[in-house]
Amino acid sequence: MAFSLQLLTLFAPLLAVAATSRTLPPQVEASADEDFNANTPPRFRGRRVQRVYAAIDALCICVCGALAFLLRFPPQSLHRLQTPSTLIGMDNRYAAFLLLDVALILLFCRSEHLYRTPLEISFSIELLSIVKAITFATLLLISFLYLSATHTISRAVVLISAVMNIAAFAVWRYAKRRYIVRRREHGIGARNALIVGAGKIGQALAEAFETQKLLGYNFIGFLDSDHASDSRILGNIADLRRVARRYFVDEIFITLPSARTLVRDVALEARRHRLAVNVIPDLYDGLAWNAPLRRLGRFPVMDLHSTSIPAGALAAKRFIDVCLASIGLFVTAPLIGVLALFVRRDSPGPAFYRSLRVGRKGQIFTCYKLRTMLADADQLKSSLRSRNERDGAFFKIADDPRVTPIGKLLRRYSLDELPQLWNVLTGDMSLVGPRPHPVDDFNLYQLEDLRRLDVKPGITGLWQVSARQDPSFHRSVMLDLDYIENWTLCLDMRIILRTFASLVRAEGC
């Protein structure tokens, strides 16, 4: 009894979530499952079919749960139970478990959109969604059994029923998909479609209806006033009522993106005759034919182009940065302390040099280095601009008079950049990336040079290991852009290994 109350305690909020969860929009609910009754509006037809699918799932879960119970506890083993009351209590516990299993699986199946049959995706993708839904539901159920310290429910029954559920769901959904495909191929349940506008978009849509029968539409013809030569023109916009009645039209597709008043008039007329109306947006000469739609607040947005960001790889890069920077700081902390003492003894001024640098997306941050120049080096920089040996937004002098004796040694082995490991930990920099430039150099950037700021700057990079002595700023920018456009974790590892080789050869300057 206590276990049943625990189940009901968890089951109640799940029912509340299911009751209050947002229903799918009509365009999502209306899928391949709409052809069972062409006279019912798509929105209600889709919901009714989804309920039927959910009922079939619930039946499969119950049957699989009963079979799993019998496999774990054959009838001959049940006779060895001590009392009938024990058997009754056991039945009650497993009935409550089965009720919870049904609720969880149905909720996860709904979250995976398994109560519709979008024929544009393959069965393998649908099978993967089935596995995900049942696996997550089973893991949640096992977690609940563990946290509630319930030992009367056999974990073997839970796992066996999960495997059987996956098999049952896959079999009946495959059979359902094949049934729908056969109906579509024979034109059963197809809806009569009338296209308003015989332009390029309308012609492409008509060809799709005629060649892709799985879409579930019979193309009736066009309504258009400007393409009289097309034999499929059934009249102009004013003939909508006559054509819709004459050819038993079910849905109207409007492909005239610029005629807003016309679209409104057609939509109002179609509504009076209880016809479904669809508007095909301006597809920009085919550029957006495969563009996905999403919502931004209350507004539908069409993505004409987007650049995929490898979020997982970027997270791995950050993880590697933090781990290696932490280890590097821990190992080199004594060395940095000793070098800081040498810097202080070599010339007056602080041991560490702090400089404002430009990072990702133009963000200004404080970059830390061991001081290799005189304390007033920044004030002397403007007077030395005429001796700059690098072109573009890059300042470098081979025999810079501001560099101290210890600074030359630090630069030769790039030891002055060890404190930048702290910048990596704080997230201002990465181990590998474009060189961070001072603000005054950044002010000399050309428009194209700003592209190198799309990523975090790095302690080392492709330019440092391949063309560090090259005086061309354009060359360094090209290498930075090549790194950004072809970035992978393997490329980072190769650059880091080449950096160690450069340090051993003392190629710094």
Separation, N- and C-terminal Cα atoms: 79 Å
Order of helices and strands: HHHHHHHEHEHEHEEEHEEHHHEEHEHHH
- How many structural domains are formed by the residues? 3
Structural class of the helix and strand makeup?
alpha/beta
Helix content: 40-55%
Spatial strand sequence of the major β-sheet: 2-1-3-4
- Total helix count? 18
The backbone outline, from C-alpha atoms, is: flat
Largest sheet: 4 strands, parallel
Mean pLDDT: 78
What's the gyration radius in Å?
35 Å
Percentage of β-strand residues? 5-15%
Unreliable residue stretches: 1-30, 35-44, 81-89
Would you report the number of β strands?
Answer: 11
Précis, in short:
By secondary structure, the protein is of the alpha/beta class.
Structure description:
The chain is of the alpha/beta class and 509 residues long. It has 3 domains: 2-185, no CATH class; 191-286, NAD(P)-binding Rossmann-like Domain (Rossmann fold, 3-Layer(aba) Sandwich); 314-504, no CATH class. It contains 18 helices and 11 strands. The strands form 4 sheets. The chain has a 4-stranded parallel sheet, sandwiched between helices. Strands 8-7-10 form a 3-stranded antiparallel sheet. It has a two-stranded antiparallel ribbon with strand order 5-6. Helix 3 (42-72) packs antiparallel against helix 5 and helix 5 (84-111) crosses helix 6 (123-147). The model is unreliable at 1-30, 35-44 and 81-89 (pLDDT under 50).
